[in-house]
Design brief:
This protein is α/β, with parallel strands linked by helices. It is built from 11 helices and 8 strands. The chain starts with about 25 loop residues before the first helix and ends with a helix.
């Protein structure tokens, strides 16, 4: 599979049909379309319960033009592991070509309830591609906070008000968790940088063993912003260094979009209702804390990659 240089190089074939019920401005369709374009046939998709599953397979319809399996919220990596193991035996006994196994899970089904299944799949070394589409809360069930919800974000279970100024805990570091399991390739993705995203998918799909991709998923419904500004919000996440774009490739870290002069974090927060309370004077202490953590994480990646600004 070849890397691309421009959007014109991306294949035009579509294996996700239009007409699904994903929200206007949702970031999920972009990652699904790109994965189905970048990973050659044959392939099998395994999908945890969540926004993607609910909105693309409303009975009796489906948007999927490839073999697709729905499983419970918590076990997409386990289901994918079993499918991969079965095809491995079929390939050995019958000479049947093993398809590429692709697993999609949201942040709730990855960071929280599905973390045990993902950990097991990575530890056992199954040959599969795992993609977490991260909209930073349980959007499909009522916008509850998850382990992926950023510090300071207001959700229905971490509402910003007189008691707390949004979620007080830090977001989990999914890529570091994956790397700790010994994976060969892991990377972050963002829809505002499609060429970077496509090339990372190609790399992940071309690497043997388990690989993990962490995708930034704008959610107008749960983040409270105008759907027309979805890509603008996504781009600001990178430009403020809140969502660094980097990859881990066989022991080597590389920042793939270098942000030498970051935009103010306030530019990102003011576009989203879930963060606007952080711009109030009484919450400056939390805003300063978030800024410090963002800068610390960026400096950590610079050190790991051997880069400098």
């Amino acid at each position: 599979m070849n890397q691309i240089k421009t959007l014109r190089d991306i294949p035009t074939r579509e294996q996700l049909a239009p007409g699904h019920r994903l929200c206007a401005g949702c970031g999920i369709p972009q990652i699904v379309r790109f994965v189905l374009k970048a990973v050659p046939d044959p392939k099998v998709v395994v999908n945890a319960t969540g926004c993607l599953e609910v909105a693309t397979t409303i009975f009796p319809y489906t948007s999927w033009k490839v073999p697709w399996i729905h499983n419970a919220f918590e076990n997409v990596a386990a289901t994918a592991s079993g499918i991969e193991a079965a095809f491995k035996i079929m390939e050995k006994k019958r000479g049947r070509r093993k398809p590429r196994i692709i697993a999609f899970g949201g942040d709730g089904g990855t960071f929280d309830i599905g973390l045990q299944a993902l950990s097991g799949a990575l530890e056992r070394g199954h040959d599969l591609l795992y993609i977490c589409y991260d909209n930073e809360a349980y959007m499909n069930t009522g916008i509850q906070r998850s382990g992926a919800t950023p510090k300071g974000a207001s959700t229905t279970t971490s509402p910003a008000g007189r008691v707390i100024p949004g979620k007080l805990e830090r977001k989990k570091d999914l890529i570091s968790i994956a790397i700790a399991h010994g994976v060969k390739y892991a990377a972050t993705l963002n829809p505002a940088y499609p060429v970077d995203m496509y090339n990372k998918i190609v790399k992940a799909a071309s690497t043997s063993g388990p690989t993990v991709l962490h995708y930034f998923t704008p959610c107008p419904t749960g983040w409270y912003f105008d759907p027309s500004r979805s890509i603008e919000v996504a781009r600001l996440a990178v430009q403020t260094r809140i969502w660094p774009l980097y990859e881990y490739d066989n022991g080597v870290y590389r920042i793939t979009v270098m942000v030498k002069k970051p935009r103010p974090i306030e530019d990102y927060f003011k576009l989203q209702g879930r963060f606007r309370h952080l711009l109030k004077p009484e919450n400056k202490w939390l805003l300063d804390e978030i800024k410090k953590e963002v800068e610390e994480n960026w400096n950590r990646l610079l050190k790991l990659s051997g880069a400098s600004t």
